[in-house]
Design goal:
Elements: E1 8-12, H1 17-32, E2 36-42, E3 56-60, H2 66-69, H3 74-98, E4 105-110, H4 117-123, E5 128-132, H5 136-143, H6 145-150, H7 185-199, E6 204-206, H8 214-224, E7 228-230, H9 240-243, H10 253-259, E8 266-270, H11 279-292, E9 296-299, H12 318-321, E10 326-329, H13 334-339, E11 343-348, H14 352-361, E12 365-367, H15 374-384, E13 388-390, H16 397-409, H17 411-429, H18 436-450
Helix pairs in contact: 5-8, 11-16, 16-17
The protein binds uridine-5'-diphosphate-xylopyranose.
Uridine-5'-diphosphate-xylopyranose (UDX) binds at residues 16-19, 21, 133-134, 246, 270, 272-274, 299, 331-332, 334-335, 351-354, 357, 372-374.
Amino acid sequence: MEQRKGRRLILFPLPLQGHMNPMLELANILYFKGFSITIIHTNFKCLNPSSHPHITFHLISANLSESEAAEKDLLLLLSHLNKKCCEPFRKCLATLVSDVSKEPVVCLITDPVYDFTQSVAESFKIPRILLRTGSASFTAIISAFPVLQEKGYIPKQDSRLEELVTEFSPLRVKDLPMINSSDPERFLKLISNLTSETKASQGFIVNTFEDLEQHALATLRKEFHIPVFPIGPFHKRVPATTSASTLSSQDWSCISWLNTQAVKSVIYVSFGSIATLDEALFLEIAWGLANSKQPFLWVVRPGSVHGSNWLELLPHGYLESLDGGGHIIKWAPQKEVLAHQAVGVFWTHNGWNSTLESICEGIPMICMPCSADQMLNARYVSDVWEIGLQLDNGIERGEIVRAIKILMMEKKGEQMRNRLSKLKDKANLCLRQDISSYQSLKDLVNHILSLEI
Ligand code: UDX
C-alpha cells in the first residue's frame, strides 16, 4: 500500500459483469497506489459496498422501466442506459465535486460505452480517462471500421464470411466484431462512439500486457495520439477477495468437487455472463461432454438456455449417468476454478476477461465465440497465440469429443500447453518492478497527478 495521495478518483462502471469486474479491479489497483476511490453505480445492477469498505459508493437510479430493464437486445439496453443515466450521473457528480469535506476529485475514469461522460466531465472541467475492457486488438480493429466498411467487409455478407481480412490477417470477415440487434445501424453507431469517446479522452487503460499484444498496442499509440496504459493483467495485481464484483452468488461447492479430481483432468465450461444457447446447442454440449468421458465442471446460468429455467432440457437420467464425473452449477468463482490444479481445459465463449484469465493460468481453450469481440479474441487464441482450438466444423457432439481429446491427450495440445506456460510466465513477469505493466501503472499514476486542475 502506497502513501495516501490526498486525491480522489471517481469511477463509473457499465453495469454488465464483464465490464464491472475489470473496473472494480482497477479501483483496487489505484486504491493501493494511494488514491481515494469513489464508485458511482446504478440500481440496474449494483455492486455490494459492504464487500469493499475501503471504497466509497454512490448509487444512482438508472430509471429503467421494467420492460427496459428486461430488454434482451443488448444494444437497445445500452441505448436505454445511455439515455436514462446521464442526468442522475450529472447530478451525482455535481454533489461529489462540490463536497469539500473529501479529497479533491482529480479525474473521472469511465467506460466508453457510456457516451455522455465526456461532455459531463467537460462541463465540470474534470479530466477523464477511459477503461477499455476489451483487448487492445479490439480497440485497434474497431477504430479501423470506417476503412473496413469502405472495403466492403462490413456489413458482413454471408458469401464473404470465410474471406481473409488482409489488412488484419489472420482475421476473417466472420471474426470481425458484431452484436446482432433489431437495427444493424445501432452497432455501427456504438462502434463509432467507442472510437470518438476514446479519442476525446485524456488517455486510456487496457487490461492487457505488452508481450501479449505488442503489435496492437503499437498501432493504438500511433493512431490515437493520447497515452495508452496496458497495466494488465488486473486480476493478478489484487487479491480476488478485495476485487470480487460478481453480480451472482458464486457456488464454492465446485472447489470441493475439483479437489476430488485428478490433476489437469477437468474441462471447465462457461460462456460468461451474457451468452445464451438454444436447446439443440445445449444438448450437443451436454452429449459432447458426457461422451468425452472426461470429468467436467459446467456453468449453466439460470435462463441462459432458451425455453428453460435451468437444466430442465437435459435428457432424463443424464446427470445420474455421469456417475459423479460431471458437476453443473449456476455461477462459479471462475478465477479460483481456472487456478485449480484439476482444471486442464477451458471451454469458453472468449469474452476478454475469460480469455485473459485462462492465459494467466496456462489453460488451453476450446473456443465458442458468440458475439461482440469474442470472435476476434477466439481467432487470436487459435491462430495468433496458438493456445486453443475453434470448433470449425460446427458444434456437434463428435467434434466436441475430438477437440477435448486433442487438447487433453495429443501432441498438439501439449504444444499449446508449452506456449501457454511461456505466456503465463510473461503475464507474471510484466507486473514485476520496472517491467512493462509495472512501468505502465507508474506512468498512469504520474499522468493522473499531472492532470490536476
Ligand atoms: C462481456 C462480453 O461478452 C465480452 O466479450 C467482453 O470482452 C466483456 O464484456 P462476458 O460475456 O460476461 O463479458 O465475458 P467475460 O469478459 O469473459 O467476463 C466474464 C467475467 O465473469 C469474468 O471475469 C469471469 O471470471 C466471471 N465469471 C464468469 C465468473 O466469475 N463466474 C462464472 O461462472 C462465469
